[in-house]
Amino acid sequence: MIELDIIGVAPISEEVIFYIAKAVIDNEDPVNNYNICLNLIDSEDMRRINRQFRGCDKTTDILSFVNCEVPLGNASEGRMLKQCDIVIDTNQLALQKGNRSLHEEFQIVFIHGLLHLVGYDHIRNRDARNMENKEIYYQELIKVKE
Q1: Which residue would you say has higher pLDDT here, 126 or 49?
Q2: Which end of the chain is less enclosed by CB atoms within 10 A, N or C?
Q3: CA atoms within 13 A on the CB side of 77
């Protein structure tokens, strides 16, 4: 189960945002429930958040946080409710999109953030390749379903 709250103005519809979230979460972590707050902000706010939580005094396109994990049902089932935040700097998306539309850039970055929530990372080269392959898979899946 996925609950999704959106704060701010997204360059794509809420229906498409929910579809992307459901596609990634249902395929990558079907056991757990997710409550995700998607916060769309400007570069000044992103810089402040990035400095506060990561110690980086600069903006970035996206930050993803699993804030809390609460057991659901019987403890032996191992099911969790994950309270999460995804923060996207919409100004940064416009700056980095290159030849892509803002719509496409948003989808790419949002998929990246969702993959972080379900446990993917890109610190080591092997993990980065694995995450990139997943990103490409979901980008293609979204194109087929649009």
Answers
A1: 49
A2: C
A3: 12
Q: Which domain holds residue 72?
A: 2-145
**Cα distance between residue 71 and residue 73, in whole Å:** 7
Alpha-carbon distance 95 to 1, whole Å? 34
Count the helices and strands in the chain (H runs, E runs). 5, 4
Cα 138 to its chain centre, rounded Å, is 12
pTM value surpassing 0.90: yes
Burial of 33 (0-12, 13-18, 19+ CB in 10 A): middle
CA distance 60 to 89: 7
Q: Tell me the CATH number at 56.
A: 3.40.390.30
Contact call for residues 55 and 68 (beta carbons, < 8 A): no
